[in-house]
Write a structure and sequence with these properties.
563 residues, 17 helices, cytoplasm, 37% helix, phosphoprotein, elongated
Length: 563
């Protein structure tokens, strides 16, 4: 059967029954759609009658909100799918109006429409499929070559956990008192409300927060998107998507699921954001994690003469497949951990490098642990070119950088035996940009020449893959000598701690050293692969092996034969 890039899943089964059938329905849909799956809830709709069914309002109750959470939780098992529950026909009691009076445009027009509707004999009954296609195109912008599939009985094979007709979903939405909360209780609508978050790599837990906020809001939703100082404490902040990219993805999702709302997306620069200062806001959607923050927002509002916001607390989505050192909830932090070792941007063509030799440049801020990564790569078969060792050769008496450095900085940088005292030299240049440039203009070209000579040695030894281990790889412009840049990242506080422990420097001296280098963020922006030594040694080893194995898969065979 054909696989489609985008699809529309029309769910017609009553929610209590549908909840039990949802896992196999999503599995069946995931076999047919490989990118975007829109979901349209129309419980009780009959596609088998003589009349063409019309879209009708679905009362927004806490049961409906719980089902939305349940569906996104189930969708998390199919991470290749971007699932989006469409909310136009889900309405609060205060806005119970005719729905879908015009065709709604979608960012990814569905190429196939699917449904859980059951025909009497379980066949792909053409009149039902025609009804389904007409219904889909009357509601949403679809592909001109729209296909249709009745998922039953595919999802109905095997034993299903049969729920009693009145079975209720677990409660996942908790409104703060005095808002009533019972499953069939209609949800109150508000004019304006707010929700906030980092929204990095928009995932299903984000979608629950945003969807609940969209159901509650009837006119405008203010979305605070964390930026700048609020990002510093995040795990692997170097891998966060840029603010503009996060806003772009958010906007597309929000306009898709409820285009009738006005959205205001703004940078969130402090813990309160617009929720603390905007007198026109009426509600705030928070997660279990950020509930205390919501309470703090309300205290802040009261202190400044504003009314409290109605708080709606959303239960965290559990991540059923989290790995070691990952959180047990669905989170962007875990997603960032999972891209460590992946290829983030295509390798560079380097025809000027020795034929048959593939070169990686390994870099990272001081204290990042890149030398330990280099040793792991060596153990896997890579030929290592250590720029520190090349630097020692360059500085040694008679070395190619010795005389120019002595002439530039004077004989008082020498030990009694005539060798260069690198600590004294370092004290002259660290923190002094002019002096540092004089030194690097001498030394970097020399080390680059020595590195190229080492590449020839690697080829002569029959090696096909080598790694240039260099803290200043990008500052020196040596990326032109490598096919890929691999960067090891670590929080600056951890780097300072390691430098102090390793080199016996003061914290101030360690920070000064880091300030003379590119930041981790700047390095990552120019990197093909990112790794981190933040966790235990075996976790680092697993990362390096993953990166190595992925590298072997994308390398031409000529580079793999002798490693």
């Amino acid at each position: 059967m054909a696989v489609f890039r985008s699809g529309l899943l029309v769910l017609t089964t009553p929610l209590a029954t549908l909840a039990a059938r949802l896992p196999p329905i999503l599995t069946s849909a995931s076999r047919l759609v490989n990118h975007t799956l829109y979901v349209h809830l129309q419980p009780g709709m009959n596609l088998g009658g003589p009349a063409q069914p019309q879209a009708s309002p679905v009362q927004a109750t806490f049961e409906v909100l719980d089902f939305i959470t349940h569906l996104y939780t189930g969708a998390d098992l199919h991470r290749h799918l971007d699932v989006r529950i469409l909310l136009t026909n889900i309405q609060t009691k205060s806005t119970f109006l005719p729905v879908l009076s015009s065709v709604q445009n979608l960012a990814h027009p569905p190429e196939v429409v699917l449904t859980d509707f059951q025909t009497l004999d379980g066949s792909q009954y053409n009149p039902v499929k025609q009804q389904l296609e007409r219904y889909a195109t009357s509601c949403y912008s679809c592909s001109p070559q729209l296909a249709s599939v009745l998922l039953y009985p595919d999802y109905g094979t095997g034993e299903l956990p049969l729920e009693p007709p009145n079975a209720l979903l677990p409660s996942t939405i908790r409104p703060a008192s005095p808002v009533a909360r019972s499953p069939r209780q209609p949800v109150r609508g508000y004019h304006r409300g707010a929700v906030g978050g980092t929204f990095d790599r928009l995932h299903n837990a984000h979608k629950v927060l945003l969807s609940v906020a969209c159901v509650l809001a009837q006119e405008q939703l203010v979305v605070g998107v964390a930026d700048k100082d609020l990002l510093k404490s995040k795990l692997l902040p170097e891998l966060l998507q840029p603010y503009a990219e996060r806003v772009e993805h958010l906007t597309e999702f929000l306009v898709d699921i409820k285009p009738s709302l006005t959205f205001e997306l703004i940078p969130l620069l402090d813990p309160y954001g617009p929720a603390g200062s905007d007198p026109t806001l009426e509600f705030l959607v928070v997660s279990e994690e950020t509930y205390r923050g919501g309470m703090a927002v309300n205290r802040f509002r009261l202190e400044n003469g504003k009314e409290e916001l109605a708080l709606y607390q959303i239960q965290l989505l559990k991540d059923q497949s989290h790995n070691e050192n990952e959180e047990d909830k669905v989170s962007s932090s875990s997603f960032r951990q999972r891209i460590l070792g992946n290829l983030l941007q295509p390798p560079n063509e380097r025809p000027e490098l020795p034929s048959g030799l593939y070169v990686l440049g390994l870099t990272g801020i001081s204290g990042s642990g890149k030398s330990s990564v280099a040793q792991r790569l060596k153990n896997l078969g890579a030929y290592i070119i250590d720029s520190d060792h090349l630097g020692h050769r360059a500085y040694a008496p008679g070395g190619p950088a010795y005389q120019p450095v002595v002439e530039a900085f004077g004989t008082d940088i020498l030990h009694k035996d005539g060798t260069i005292n690198r600590k004294v030299l370092g004290s002259r240049v660290f923190g002094n940009k002019k002096q540092m440039k004089i030194l690097t203009d001498i030394v970097w070209p020399v080390i680059a020449k020595l590195a190229r000579e080492e590449m020839d040695v690697a080829v002569a030894k029959g090696k096909t893959l080598c790694v240039i281990d260099a803290a200043m790889l990008l500052e020196a412009g040596w990326q032109s000598m490598v096919h890929e840049v691999w960067t090891v990242v670590i929080p600056e506080t951890e780097a300072v701690r390691r430098i102090v422990e390793r080199d016996g420097l003061s914290e101030a001296a360690a920070q000064s050293r880091l300030q003379s280098q590119m930041s981790g963020q700047q390095l990552v922006e120019q990197s093909n692969v990112v790794l981190s030594t933040l966790w235990e040694s075996h976790v680092t080893q697993r990362q390096v092996e993953k990166a190595w194995n992925l590298l072997q898969k994308r390398l031409p065979k000529a580079y793999q034969t002798r490693n």
